[in-house]
Amino acid sequence: EAMTGMACLPLSVRAGRLQAGSTLIKVAQGKYARHKQDAKVVHLSPDCRTLTWEGTKKSVELAQVLRVSIGLETRTLQKLYQGNALVADMPSYHWFSLHTATRSYDFGIKDCGDENEMVVLWVLTLQEIVA
């Protein structure tokens, strides 16, 4: 099913797509993580309050998110792009970040059909929820 006109869909429909889950690239930060990136199935919780991955072992409370950005805005993503062939073929606008007071959570969209629509779906929906 094409995601044409994602921005025109009501929030409830877009939230439903996020609740169904998508495979995103999650970038780990911190000195022990070595900035590794892994494909994770990321879900929006049924109550639209939490983003979870690795089952429900890892999560971020959306109430803690101050803003959502697109592109290489965080140091984690900027470092990732320095000489990393694995992400060189991914346009910078296929990454988005959730910013909290203490850290960022960085996700990339790759190999899902229409990456641009998928970025719009995730970013627009999350921005609306955290607003």
Structure in words:
This protein has 4 helices and 7 strands; from the N terminus they run αβββββααββα. It has helices spanning 11-20, 75-80, 85-88, 115-130; strands spanning 22-27, 37-44, 50-53, 58-61, 67-70, 95-99, 104-108. A hairpin with a 5-residue loop joins strand 2 and strand 3 (50-53). It is globular. The protein starts with 10 loop residues before the first helix and ends with a helix. The model has no long low-confidence stretch (mean pLDDT 89).
What order do the helices and strands follow? HEEEEEHHEEH
Shape: globular
**For the largest beta sheet, what order do the strands appear in spatially?**
4-3-2-1-7-6-5
The structural class is alpha+beta
Number of helical segments with 4 or more residues: 4
Helix content: 25-40%
Total beta strands = 7
Overall pLDDT metric: 89
Give a quick account of the main beta sheet: strands, pairing sense, barrel closure.
7 strands, antiparallel
Beta-strand residue fraction: 25-35%
Descriptive key words:
131 residues, alpha+beta, 7-stranded antiparallel β-sheet, 7 strands, 27% helix, 27% strand
